Amino acid sequence: MSDSPMADLGPALKESKDSPARGLLFLCVANSARSQMAEGLARARLGSRLSVQSAGSQPGTLNPLAVAVLAEIGIDISGHRSKHVDVIDFSDVGTVVTLCAEEICPVFLGTARRLAWPLPDPVREGGTERERLVRFRALRDEIASRLDRLLCSLSSFSPIEEVVSTANSLK
């Protein structure tokens, strides 16, 4: 995970300041951990102010460690399910965030802004449950940090302090 997370957000973030905010879509391969965590974190911060979706190109099963590490900070994603990218309502997608690092992410062919947050799959490395929990927590915190910066950059959220305050209260 990057020492300079702002650099990871790339030029698309700067372009988004001039565009109206529309829904967020988080994509990865299995839609079982990274994109599910991102969806849960975004929904907790945004409520109903913005549509938030996640999907994968080869959906698997919601990872129980993703559920557990979000529950540690008061976010319940136990009712989420892995979804295929084909079931996504693209008409409401303004920003697509891909979360793949070492695998090929699904392609989004729409006109939405695209951000690449290449984050390692916490499931790939194996290890003890404790080691996996450490990786899932680090991933959760990295996604939360990037998401907070993205939300603060979207011009339709006013006042910005409200979003920052909400985000900080969930940490």
Q: Number of helical runs?
A: 5
The number of E-state strands comes to: 4
What are the low-pLDDT stretches, counting only 5+ consecutive residues below 50? 1-20, 156-171
Q: How far from one another are the termini?
A: 18 Å
Provide the number of structural domains.
1
Order of helices and strands: HEHEHEEHH
Overall mean pLDDT stands at: 82
Q: What order do the strands of the largest sheet run in, or round the barrel if closed?
A: 2-1-3-4
Instruction: Kindly name the structural category.
Output: alpha/beta
Proper CATH architecture = 3-Layer(aba) Sandwich
As a percent range, the share of strand residues is 5-15%
What is the CATH third-level topology name? Rossmann fold
At the first level of CATH, the class is Alpha Beta
Net shape: globular
Radius of gyration: 15 Å
CATH superfamily: Response regulator
How helix-rich are the residues, as a percent range? 25-40%
Largest sheet report: 4 strands, parallel
Protein described:
This protein is 40% helix and 12% strand. 39% of the residues are buried. The protein starts with a helix and ends with a helix. The chain has one domain (20-164): Response regulator (Rossmann fold). With 171 residues, it is of the alpha/beta class.
Structural topology:
Elements: H1 5-16, E1 23-28, H2 34-46, E2 52-56, H3 64-71, E3 93-98, E4 113-116, H4 129-153, H5 160-169
Parallel strand pairs: 1-2, 1-3, 3-4
Helix pairs in contact: 1-4, 2-4, 3-4, 4-5
